[in-house]
Structures are given as C-alpha cells and as structure tokens.
Amino acid sequence: MIGIAVVGYGYWGPNLVRNLADIPDARLIHVCDIRKERLTPIQARYPTVAVTDDLEEVLRDPRVDAIAIATPVSTHFKIAMKALMAGKHVFVEKPMAATTEEARRLVDEAARRGLKLAVDHTFVHTGAVRKMREIVEDGLGDMYYYDSVRVNLGLFQHDVSVIWDLAVHDLSIMDYVLREKPVAVSATGMSHVLGEPENIAYLNLFFESRLIAHIHVNWLAPVKVRRTLIGGSSKMIVYDDLEPSEKIKVYDKGITLNGGPHTNGDVYQMLVGYRTGDMYAPQLDMTEALNRELRQFISCVENNEQPVADGHAGLRVVRILEAATQSLAQRGRVVELGQARMIA
Amino acid sequence: MIGIAVVGYGYWGPNLVRNLADIPDARLIHVCDIRKERLTPIQARYPTVAVTDDLEEVLRDPRVDAIAIATPVSTHFKIAMKALMAGKHVFVEKPMAATTEEARRLVDEAARRGLKLAVDHTFVHTGAVRKMREIVEDGLGDMYYYDSVRVNLGLFQHDVSVIWDLAVHDLSIMDYVLREKPVAVSATGMSHVLGEPENIAYLNLFFESRLIAHIHVNWLAPVKVRRTLIGGSSKMIVYDDLEPSEKIKVYDKGITLNGGPHTNGDVYQMLVGYRTGDMYAPQLDMTEALNRELRQFISCVENNEQPVADGHAGLRVVRILEAATQSLAQRGRVVELGQARMIA
Amino acid sequence: MIGIAVVGYGYWGPNLVRNLADIPDARLIHVCDIRKERLTPIQARYPTVAVTDDLEEVLRDPRVDAIAIATPVSTHFKIAMKALMAGKHVFVEKPMAATTEEARRLVDEAARRGLKLAVDHTFVHTGAVRKMREIVEDGLGDMYYYDSVRVNLGLFQHDVSVIWDLAVHDLSIMDYVLREKPVAVSATGMSHVLGEPENIAYLNLFFESRLIAHIHVNWLAPVKVRRTLIGGSSKMIVYDDLEPSEKIKVYDKGITLNGGPHTNGDVYQMLVGYRTGDMYAPQLDMTEALNRELRQFISCVENNEQPVADGHAGLRVVRILEAATQSLAQRGRVVELGQARMIA
Amino acid sequence: MIGIAVVGYGYWGPNLVRNLADIPDARLIHVCDIRKERLTPIQARYPTVAVTDDLEEVLRDPRVDAIAIATPVSTHFKIAMKALMAGKHVFVEKPMAATTEEARRLVDEAARRGLKLAVDHTFVHTGAVRKMREIVEDGLGDMYYYDSVRVNLGLFQHDVSVIWDLAVHDLSIMDYVLREKPVAVSATGMSHVLGEPENIAYLNLFFESRLIAHIHVNWLAPVKVRRTLIGGSSKMIVYDDLEPSEKIKVYDKGITLNGGPHTNGDVYQMLVGYRTGDMYAPQLDMTEALNRELRQFISCVENNEQPVADGHAGLRVVRILEAATQSLAQRGRVVELGQARMIA
C-alpha cells in the first residue's frame, strides 16, 4: 500500500483524486491546494482524505510515499524538488518543468535519491498510442515521416504558448512511439492577440536518418482535428483520435523501388512503383488512460520499476519545447538539441 | 473568332483540346507534339484540326492568334518565348516557367509586344475558390492564417519536387484569394528515394501583417487530404475539395477581446472570449474550371482584357517556388521574396 | 421549493439524483430501490438524502411533492399510480407504461387529481431537437417524409424489443417536432436469438396527409448511426446526433413544380425541376438535456404549468409502440391508431 | 470475334458503345436509335460503325451475333424478343422487362433457342460487390440482415417509380451476394408529386430463414447515401459506395450466446455477450464494371458459358419489383413471391 498526496486541485487535480481513490494499492492521504476553498467538496466526497493548503505539512507526513503534482507549469520544479528532497516519489503533470535546466535537475535529484520520477504523458497510456507503438516496433520498413495536426477552437493560455499546451502531447507520443530521437528542431508561429503567447505554431523535427517530423498546433481553428500520419516504406498509419472506435488504421500502402537506378537521359533515377493493399483497424484497449497510468506509477513505486514516461522522457520533451520556443522567436532558425545525455 | 494551337499532347493537352473544340469563339487549328504517334487519335476525332510535330510550322501560320502550351515545365520558357516573338498570345501550364528569371522575361516580352500571357492556374476558376475569394473580400476581420494540406499517394515526378507539383496549386489559390502577398518563405522537406526530388515538404509564408501561411504537400500519404483552413478574427473558412458538394464552409467562430488589457500579477493580458455561431455552406457554381478559364482567355484576347491569372500571377508563384526550393536545401532558412516589382 | 424522491436506482436513477441535487428549487428527500445495497454510495455523497427500500415510506412522507420513477417499464404503471393516488406529481421514465391501457389510466388519474404527469422524453430537451422543431414550425413547405436510423451494437434487453428500447426515442422526437400525428403504423422485424425479443425492426407511420415516416432500429449493427432526415417541399433537415457540433443541417434543396401538368404521350405529368441552394448549420444550445428537463418539471409543479412531454405525449408514444408490436407479430399488417382522444 | 449491335442511344447507350468499341473480341457493327439525329456523333467518332433507325435492318444482318439493348424499360420485352427470334444473343439493361410475365417469356425463348440472355446488373461486376460476395461465401456465420439505403436528390422518372429506378440495384446485388432467395416482399412509399410515381419507398424482404432484408430508396433526399449493412452472427459488413477506396469494411463484431438458456424469474433467456475485434478493408479491383461485364458477355457467347447475371437473375429481380409495386399500392401487404421455378 502506497500513501499518496495530490498537490494542486484545479482543472486536472480532480481526475487524479478520483482515480487514486479507486486504486486498491494506493491510499490517498492528502489533497493540497493554496486555494483552500476549492477543497471543500473533497471532504464530503472522500471523508478519509485530509485537505490542506500547507505543502510542508504534506511533505512532513511519513505516511506519504509519493506526491502527484497538478499545479501550473511554472511551479512544477519547486514543488517536485521539495518533494524529492523530502524523500517522496513524484508524479508530475506535463510538461515536467518550465526549462530544460529545471527538468535536468529533477532527473538528477531523483536518480541520486533512488526515487521514482514520472511525468503525466497521459496519451502514451491510451490503447491507441500503445497499439501504434506496437505496430511501429513490428516495423513499418524505413521510417519516412511523422505528421501530426492538433487544432481546434481552444482555450487561450496566458502563461504558455500553444506549443507548451498542445504540441507537448505530440512530442510525448513521438518520444514513446518512435525509436529514434530528434537531433534538431525548428518552429514558426504567430500570436494574434497582442501581449499573448503564440496561438498557432508549426514544428519541424530533424533526425539523423531520413525521418522527418512535423507538428501543427492551433488554438484558433474552426474545426477540431486530431490526426497523425506515420509513413514508412512498407506500411503507413493514420491515427485519428476523434474516431469513436477505429482510431488506428494501418495501410499496406507505399512505393516499391524496382530494379535499381535507371537512366533517363543523363539522370539516374529509380523506378518507383506503387503498392496498395488492405487496410485494417485493430481493436484497441479502451481502459481509461489516466487510471492505467496511475496504477502503473503505484506499481513502479512498490516494485522499484521504471515508469514508461519517466523523468528522462519528461526532460527530452521539455528540451524540445524550449528549443522550439527559441526557434519560433527567430522565424524558424534550426536549433540543435544537443548532448547525447539529454536525449538518451 | 480566335485561332488557337495546342502545343504538347501528353497528360493535360487532351483536356485543352477537348475544351477548346467546344468554345464557339475559338477555332482550334493545330495540335503539335514532338511524339507524332500521339496525335493519331486527334485526326479521327477532330478531322478539321491539323496535327504536326513542327512547332515552327504552327508559329508561322497567320491563322493562329494564340498558343496553349502543355509541355514539361523545363520547356515552357523556350516555347512561350518563341510564340510571343512570333506575335502569338500565350496560355501556359503552371508553373509558368522553371525559374523566376525565365518567368520575368516572359512577362516583359508579353508587355513589350502587347500580347496576353495567361497561366493555367486552374483552381482559381473553380466555383469553390471563386466563392472563397468573394468571402475573403467581404471580410473575415483581421486575417490570422492560411493553412493547406494537399497529400495523397501520388505519382512521383522525376524532374520536379512535390513543391513544384502540388504546392503550386496552393500558391496559385493564395495568390488569388488573399489581398496580401508574402514577403518571405521557408521550407523543409525530404526525399525518401535516393536520387529523386523531395516527396514531402512543408512551406511557411511570411507576410508584413500578422498573417501566417503554411502548406503541407506529400506524395506518400496513405490517405488523400485536400483541406484548407483560413482563419480571421470574425469568420473562418474550411475548404475541403474532397467534399462532393459542400466544399466551402464558413464558420461564425472566433475570439473576442474584451475590455482591453488587464493585469494578472504583473503581466498585462487581454480578456479573451469565445464566439461560436452558425455555419453555412454556400451553393457553388459547378462549371468545369478549365472550360471557364479557356473561354475567359479567348475573351481576353478578343477584347484586350487582362486574364485573372496573368503573367504577373505566374511570376509571383514561380518566385515563391524557387525561393522555397532554395530554403529546402538549407533546412528552412528564411528566403526573402524581394523586389516590389516581382510581387506587385 | 419542491420536495422530490427518486424511485429506482439502476442505470438511469443516478443521473436523476445527480441533476436533482443541483437544482435550487428542488429538494431531494429520498432515493428508493428494492436493492438496498445499491443505495450505499448515496449516503456518502449526499448525506442529507434518505435512502430506503420501502416505497410506502416515501409516499407517506408529506415533504415529498413529486416522485421521479426510473424502474423497469413493467413497474411504471403500478408505482406511478400509487404515487398519484398518494397525491404526488409524477415524472416517469420513457416509455411511460407497458400498455396503452396503463398509460391512459395514468393520464386520467393525474387529470382527475390535478397532478402533473411528465414523461422523460429526454431528447425533446436537447438543443438539437428543439432547434429542429423551431425550423419545422417556421416551415419546410409541404411535409414529405421523416426518416430515422438508430442502430449500433447495443445492449440486448431481455424484457422489451428494440422498438421499446430505441424507437421510443424517435417516436418521442416525432411527437414533439411534427405538427401532425400518425393515424396508423406497421412494423417488421426479427429476433435472431431464440427466446429473446426482436433485435432489429422497421416501422412505417402513416398520416392523413402525404407525410410518411419510417424508423429503423437495430441492436446488432457494426457501426453506430443516429441520423434523421426530414424532407419538405422547400427545405430539408439532416439531424446527425453523432456530429460533435453541427448536429442539425438545413438544406435549401428540393424540387420545383413548374408550369402545371403537361402531356407526355397520353399521361399528364408535372414538370419537375431541381433546386439546390445554401446549407446552414445553426448554433445549438448545449445545455444538458436532462438538467433542463428536470428544472422544467420542477417549475411546472411550482407554477401549475403543463410539461412539454406530458402524460398525453407519453400515451401517444406508448400507443404507437403497442400497435407496432402487434404489427410486428403479423409481418407488417397496418394497425390503425384509432380514437382522436388518444392522439389528441 | 462476335458481331454486336447496340439498340438505344440515350443515357446509357454511349457507355455501351464506348466499351464495346474497345473489346478486342467484339466487333461493333450497328448502333440503332429511332431518334436518328442522336446518331450523328457516332459516325465521326467510329467511322466503321453503321448507324440506323431501323431495327429490322440490324436483326437481318447475319454479321450480328448479339444485341445490346439500352432503350426504355417498357420496350425491353418487344425488342429482346424480336432479337431472340432472329437468333441473336441478348444483353439487356436492367430491369430486364416491365413485368414478370415478359421476363419469363424471354427466359423461356432464350432457353428454347440456346441463346445467351444477360441482364445489365452492372453493380455485380464492381470490385466491391464481388468482394462482398466472396466474404459472404467464406461465411458470416448465421445470416441476420441485409439493409440498404440508396437516397439522394435524384432525377424524377416519369414512367417508373423509385423502386424500379433505384431498388433494382439493391435487388440485383442481393441476388448475387446472398445464397438465399426471398420468399415474400412488402413495400410502403409515397408520391409527393401529383400524377407522378412514388419517389420514396421502403421494401421488406422475407426469407425462409431468420434473415431479413430492407431497402430504403428516395429521390428527394438532401444528402447522398449509398450504404449497405450485412449482419451475420460472426462477422458484419459495411459497404459504402461513396467511399473513394475503402468501400468494403468487414467487422469482427457480434454477439455470443453463452452457456445456453438461463432462468430470470420464470423466463428462459440466453446469456448474450458482445464481441468486438479488428476491422479490415480489403483492397478492391478497380476495373470499370461495365467493361468487365461486356467482356464477360462476349466471352460467354463465344464459349457457350452462362453469364453471371443471366435471364434467371433478371427474372427474379423483376418478380420482386412487380410484387413490391403491388404491395406498395396496399400499404405494405405482404406479397408471396411464389413458385420455386421463378426463384430457382
């Protein structure tokens, strides 16, 4: 039995509380928010859970093994670091931190203390994304591209751009699904409201291979689109998260390169043929992702195992977000993602 | 009655011939192709039309007022220039030429001789694109973005990249629909077949205003997508060319900025509100675009009027294609589009 | 303030409880279910609400003004009649009763005692159906047809056929949206599981005018469809309940009858022309239907007003369900719906 | 080499001519239409083909082995019978004849003379329908239902109802795809234009097994739908003819009956479980159906083989159309389809 506390009871906190209250191996001990009035409904619904606006009280409680953090991004580092230093395992909302430096310090601190550090990359626990990784691992041939569109008329964030709000999902999915990690990033975008962060952005991700990735995010689109295309030389995937059941479609489509280069005038060219075959939509596990994710986190703490989306994953994603933000300010200058350690 | 000759009888030439044969004010005199065997079926179908593999013969014929060119891009300049120098009006496939320099010389030559130079930007003659321009001219409020996706499992071109093959459509539509012209471009992309041109590409177009444009083209997508989003502060448009009848949808959606900037902590921010209203799909003219376009060209020659897609439009599009190609070779370096004259 | 009790805490009861607990003018006093163990979670969540397995206790309580019934259909009559005889207003799940005779007796009893009798035709409180009624009242020209498809891989009911489970929704919507009431019904269908009720059925509804209605319901379809077409001489509506936002589309499409009858050989015929115009999708109120409905019921009790879906509506729907069931047993024999009083 | 003549050059005749002119084993000799002015373009396009308004001349020509008939339905019998009596093989548009009696006499005459009689059930030669038959033959488990919707804003026919115009397609597909033949039919519908035939209709088809079939056809729908659902106990098919490539989807979905009947109170019931698995969309042959069909007819004549859609198929379909028309006039009275011979 793992004792856990939730810190931050705004938009996402209630989902953590609801799921944690249901997990047999977890015991939800505290819910903490500086806006104490928000905590009133918890007492009625979960009489055994203590509520408080005092984080120190939570961190001092020896029954608490782990902290789940659902506060604004700018506070992640401070709270997570305190928790680690108090010897608590940490589960933190995405993005894991506001800067690469913060993220790296959290990773290091958790490693030094032998504590679990997990980041809430919820999508990697959905049936759709897990199936997609499975298919990619079985092989699509040579990887060609990863293209994602995530747009809708969405809530403007005042503190972070659309990249930190929406592209973070795609980056966490890519980090989980693709074997290869990007080596550089560029981004363009625009803010259409004076004084507000960018509400539309386009990211390019470069890899050492010929793989190319692109992400389009937009808070001001008239229609909602959640579609990812993954192209390989032997298979291609369409992942449409708005489809009620057939979210993943696998196409036996592509090109075939026949007979090697040939001469057309004085230029050597490949003979390119086309292949179209069946499409199939595999059945997906429909378990609620957050529930699965929290159970896994609890189990990792209990059994000293590594979470799927660990601090390293969180760091890699934050590194890209930071680099994309730099690039955006310079009309798409390519920013190298750098050291092997960070992208291990 | 305008005498006309078609030069080039490959993929597109037959469409020109079929339509020109039906236009009352046009008289189709010659069809010319260096692959003479291709011309045989014309004689059976159109006994009054002469066929030849000799371009000079066509250009010498005083009954010929205008030449319609449907040959490979690399030959456009040479044939069009010869035609202009022979005093013929010119209608040429898109892209108008292989380089900006060629395009500019054609524009100058036509101007010097008082001849019509039209480029076959077919889409700008569709009911959908014409309606879209009408809506944009009526006003979408401040223009925010123009985003187009044009992907499918398409025929690899060996001589030009996917930008010259597919993005040319989007650039010609943008040139027609938007009042503002781009001032710079960047592009990323990749070739996945050794020795072949890029088969996937992403273009960014920068404007003097806060308008941002983006085009995604791909020959290797498992599904066909032809979708353009245009966002403005008061209205937004979705143009889906694969919809059988409701190709254009206009959304009364957007954000409203209330009460001016307010203070949140120490940052000034706008109060952003959301507006959703009705959507409507206007009825569209379903006339075949090419037919309409050729009638208009004939009429412009007869009445000394300017075609909708004239040499200047052709030049502006070629300039962007060329700049995007340069940018692509440098991982998305921004290329300025330069002189006012070119983008007039 | 209206005191209310919920009877039946199975599939739907929790939704009634959740909504009633939120309505300022209602005071939820009891929740009653014969399966007492089901009631445990209520005490934790709603400490002020009494739980019981004894209906008589509820009916004796003078604080209770109204009873909301969410028990199996076969028990609706007995419980609702008891409630009326105890002087309580009644809100009952659809279908209102298991037979026309039962439904009629409830209507009569409520009328005799001056009590409100409302039936939970939830759909008539959705923004989509309310908008549809508004458009129909504004006029579609002559009414041609009402066609609905409601199919999916759905839960088999053991006690009622797919008609009582699914077609009841369409019948309640039709009753609300159309001005005219059907005069006869026929139905075909089949049970594919031995000993179980019909899992697929087709209903025809006949009217005095040339309006024709048809409903297709199916528990064993591989895909989910929820689509209604309403055709009139001047406008047509498509209502697709699976569309996330544009559930209602109004088409300015139809035929025009020109110049009166003409002679073709020896047969008089109309000259039929086609009209296609714009389509629009009106913005819809997205309030939760059940919440709106319960507020309205409470308000009707308080202010002695008639609910939108009153006992007469419930009776009309049950009458059609009963007749359709008779018809189904006779391969679609037409069953007249009969007396004016019932279909008033 | 088979000599062939086309009789009737209205809407469909040009398609027959275009395809027959391309088939190596066929020699198109005559095209015949009583509206002689319609035949002028043929002479320019196909100089070796004779045109005439005199059917007798065609039938007397010994070079003519077979006649393809594309005239109005009311004339099929007379022309086909003359052709058979002149010793010509016959290919006739659907529906094969205007009455069952006519259809039966054609079948008998062809059999007596050892001539081929084929009916143009074009859909059964499409890749989609052929694949569907293949999947049904491989087995869907017990057959549950066949449900088709074929609606759009379509051309009013003045001589036949929507059943003869649209449902004929579904009946010909069902005849080809299902192993079982219907034993009875009922139909409801309505004419919304005075003096015109029914423009909306619903057909029920009854079988000896628990299979049930239903067809909805409508000339006055605001949207185009072409969708067929086939349900079986182990698999289900969705055939959507408007999908550009994935027209056929096969679902591994259904119910499972576990453990035999159980007692619930005093009623025996099955334990019904649900099964959902993968979906797949098989690749389809995209050959033009009419071309394939005509090649097959020519080959059947040459090699004395039976066409897929022979006179018996044509007769079965006409028998159902006739019975449905009778039923329609009586608000859906069930009409038995009768003798084994007709439905063999």
TrEMBL record, chains A, B, C, D:
Q: Which InterPro entries match?
A: Gfo/Idh/MocA-like_OxRdtase_C, Gfo/Idh/MocA-like_OxRdtase_N, Gfo/Idh/MocA_Oxidoreductases, NAD(P)-bd_dom_sf
Stored Pfam families? GFO_IDH_MocA (PF01408), GFO_IDH_MocA_C (PF02894)
Enumerate the spans annotated as Gfo/Idh/MocA-like oxidoreductase C-terminal domain. 162-336
Gfo/Idh/MocA-like oxidoreductase N-terminal domain location is 3-121
Q: Under what name is this protein listed?
A: Gfo/Idh/MocA family oxidoreductase
Source species, please?
Mycoplana rhizolycopersici
